[in-house]
Amino acid sequence: MKVNHNMSAMIANNQLLRNETGLSDSIERLSSGLKINHASDDPAGMAISTKMKAQVKGLDQASRNASDGISVLDAADGALEEVTSMLQRMRELAVQAANDGVYSEEDQEAIQLEIESLTDEIGRISTDTEFNTKKLLDGSLDQRVYVDSREIHRIDISDSVSSGMYKVMMTQDARQAVLTGNTINATGDIPAGVISINGADVEITEGQDLDSVYEALRDAAERGEVNVFAADDLTHTDGKAEDAGYVPGDFAAGKYLVFVSDRYGSSTEMNITCDNQFLADYLGISTNATVRGLDAELSLDEGFSKQASYVCDGNQVTITDRNGFKLSFEADPGVTGTTFVDKGVDDVAADVEASEPADAPVQELNFDVTEIGTMTLQIGANENQVMEVRIPAVSPESLYIDGVNVCTVTGADRAITTYDRAIAKVGESRSRLGAYTNRLEHAVASLDSTEENMTAALSRVEDVDMAEEMSTYTQYTVLSQAATAVLAQANDIPQQALQLLQ
What does DSSP say about strands 326-331 and 200-204: parallel, antiparallel, or unpaired? Predict the structure, then answer.
């Protein structure tokens, strides 16, 4: 028997310490609900659970991102719904104005006033519709297209147009229907007669003064969508587009009457008639002249396939190709600087083009279709798991309704077609938004399901099995009690050695 070292007590104490450590770990797992509380508990499991936690949190945030995207699209769609309602009303007004056999010019002006007011409201919605201070309908969330010319406007592309450079060679500008008259005689009293400008009649009374004749011609021409003025000579300059390159002057003897249509292209027809040959000679015009404008001309160069084709309607160009490819734009007059030779009343037969290009300049236009500009939604937990959303501009300019005038002779009829196209375009935009919304709703459902499954997998890695751990806890509790009792007995052994000393 030894009293200096109590080995039995040391052995019992070490076992007690181990049991207490195990009991402490078990209590920690039971109280936290986790079987991995420290990296030392399961190094591999800790690494796995850390990555899985990042995925779970990322999936949860991605689901919220997608829900926010749905809210943005709902806001845009709500605004477009109101735009559609206004376009429907404007089309209704255009149909009403087209019934010119019943409505007077004053009635049509009242209709035009409401149309202009609704057009302004569409413009306001385009610029003021926002979500969290981000504008939605002004084109700032649409795919960006850059062109190396300030004279190209209203660029619109379909979803099938991939990013890259597209080159177009403009070979001819569009031209209005232009008709130049002979010199104004203004000798003696003016003869009586009726002059019709695109169906808008003006009655001239005998002896009427030139100023009132010019005012009447100007008012009738405005209703017929024509600009009429007297030019000092028929020399072309770099004048305003509405003057077709001529310099307006005073309406007086020796000047030349010039008629210029408001619109461009071969579909624009201008008809000038006069029922009195003497009145026609007095003003230097023809008794019957019909002329048309010219469409722009171009050729397709780089970036387009051999199947691509184009259509020019005046200065509006639409390029199409397979798989829904569409690129459209409007070219201002003078892009190529084409010089035209306009025909006069002595050169014009019925139903002919009034102008001929005198040269063939070429202007290169490069359209850079980029991948920037669209609204990017992060709908995944990892990098580049995004969704691109295009919200095109919906404004009077992009819908081509900013120039509607139902007070002209053919304006109401043409307005009906214009509004039909605008309604179709807004409907297309709403359809796109609806498709985006449906996709995002499915994305939210998928993300939530993935998050649920990922959370279950994470639970299997780091969550403790409470029933199993309770058994372990009970085991260590019993062992600790037993070790404590044994230690107490071991501590009594040296006391037995004292009996030998008595």
Answer: unpaired
Paired tokens of 489 = 């007995």
- By residue count, the chain amounts to 502
Contact between residue 127 and residue 135 where contact means Cβ atoms under 8 Å apart = yes
Query: Could you tell me how far CA 423 lies from the centroid of its own chain?
Result: 15
Contacts (Cβ under 8 Å, ≥6 apart) of 318: 310, 311, 326, 327, 328
Residues 6+ apart with CB under 8 A from 101: none
**Is there a contact between 136 and 125 (Cβ–Cβ < 8 Å)?**
no
Tell me the helix, strand and coil percentages in the chain, rounded to 5.
Answer: 45, 25, 35
What is the model's pLDDT at position 170? 94
Residue 295 token pair: 């469409």
Return the pLDDT at 1.
58
Distant-in-sequence, close-in-space partners of 358: CB < 8 Å, separation ≥ 6: 338, 339, 340, 341
Q: What is the pTM of this model?
A: 0.84
Distance CA 20, CA 290 (A): 109
Report the C-alpha gap between 373 and 350 in whole angstroms.
Answer: 50
* Amino acid 8: pLDDT: 78
* Residues 290 and 352 sit within 8 Å (Cβ to Cβ): yes
| pLDDT digit string, tens, across residues 232-248 | 888 887 777 778 889 89
pLDDT value of position 325: 94
Cβ atoms < 10 Å from Cβ of 217? 24
Cα–Cα nearest to 470, from 7, 26, 2, 66: 26
> In the prediction, which pLDDT does 28 show?
79
> If pLDDT is split at 50, 70 and 90, which confidence band does 383 have?
very high
Q: How far is CA 315 from CA 167, 176, 185, 263, in A?
A: 17, 10, 36, 9
Residue 378 burial (CB count, 10 A): 17
Beta-carbon contacts of 85 under 8 Å, excluding residues fewer than 6 positions away, are none
CA atoms within 13 A on the CB side of 82: 16
- Tens of pLDDT along 191-200? 999 999 998 9
Q: For residues 210 and 298, is the Cβ–Cβ distance under 8 A? A: no
Contact 267, 314 (CB under 8 A): yes
CB 317 within 8 A of CB 298: yes
Q: Residue 474, SS3?
A: helix
Summarize pLDDT for 296-345 with one digit per residue, the tens. 999 999 999 999 999 999 999 999 999 999 999 999 988 988 888 888 88
Phi, psi dihedrals of residue 14, rounded to the nearest 5°: -60, -45
- Is-contact 230 256, C-beta < 8 A? yes
What is the distance between the terminal CA atoms of the chain, rounded to a whole angstrom? Answer: 15
Q: Are 392 and 157 in contact (CB under 8 A)?
A: no
For residue 426, the model assigns a pLDDT of 96
Task: Identify the helix (H) or strand (E) that includes residue 112.
Answer: helix 105-128
